[in-house]
Amino acid sequence: MRVFLFLTFLSLALCVQFTNGxxxxxxxxxLNTFCAKVANKNFLMRPKVEPLFKITTEANIxxxxxxxxxxxxxxxxxxKDQILAKIPKNMNIGGFNTHDFFEEGINAIVKGxxxxxxxxxxxxxxxxxxxxxxxxNFVNTFTKWATVLIIDPKLxxxxxxxxxxxxxxxxxxxxxxxxxxxxxxxxxxxxDKDFQAAVAQFNSILSxxxxxxxEKILKELEPLIVKLFTQQGEIFHNLxxxxxxxxxxxxxxxxxxxxxxGMVDNHSLKDKSAKPKRKPLTKAPIDAKRPPWKPAGHxxx
Length: 301
Fold this sequence. Notes:
The chain has helices spanning about 1-20, 25-40, 45-50, 60-70, 75-85, 100-130, 135-145, 155-205, 210-260, and strands at about 25, 90-95, 95, 130-135. By secondary structure, it is an all-alpha fold. The strands form 2 sheets. It has a two-stranded antiparallel sheet with strand order 1-4. Strands 2-3 form a two-stranded antiparallel ribbon. Helix 1 runs antiparallel to helix 2 (about 25-40) and helix 8 (about 155-205) packs antiparallel against helix 9. It is rod-shaped.
């Protein structure tokens, strides 16, 4: 028994030493320390508590990290210039100057893919990679708490009694996360399919020499450009919502961490924040009298 206690104490001491060096506490260190301490009081909580600190499985997280690290769709700039050079500057289709319509539409889509989408992907990737708490008060409290070998039985009982509520809160966030990931995959699949269709049409423009046939291709391509821009906006809205879910989960995970070490008596986030919750990106209303990438109030004559 003494050997077991000594090894446990040594493990906790090494944990604290490692923590001080990093200036932050990883969730894995928190869980290992907590579970070791409660085990000394014959509480077996790891199977219930550990899953709360991962929004999804390791395999899913790995796949999502690959997805949000991948290069975004881009249209070769030189090819874009070649396409625009084939469109007469005095041509009008559907009430819009055709040359301006395609130049502005393509630029808006490329900018969205290379700037807005890239920024949203980077933010979500950073959130998925977050595995520690660097709050000074938490680090200091944990460091002191971890040096005490035996956990306060009242704290252990309080955590055990609250596990069902914690699991319920986790399920709500996990379900929201899964829903937004599913929507993200569906939206991206549709966009990629339509983008490839547009690329095929662009290639047809480059090879077409008949003016009438060229006009026909452009008429067919015009609604597809609008569709791609609209789909892109839906993707941005979805990713912003997904990021908000991850932000909520991050806050809840920190609250659970504080609860496990006795910093707070309540792990609920109902009264957590003084700042208003940021709303997801809004989608601009469709206006038939202007291309969707034009600012409100603009009219094409």
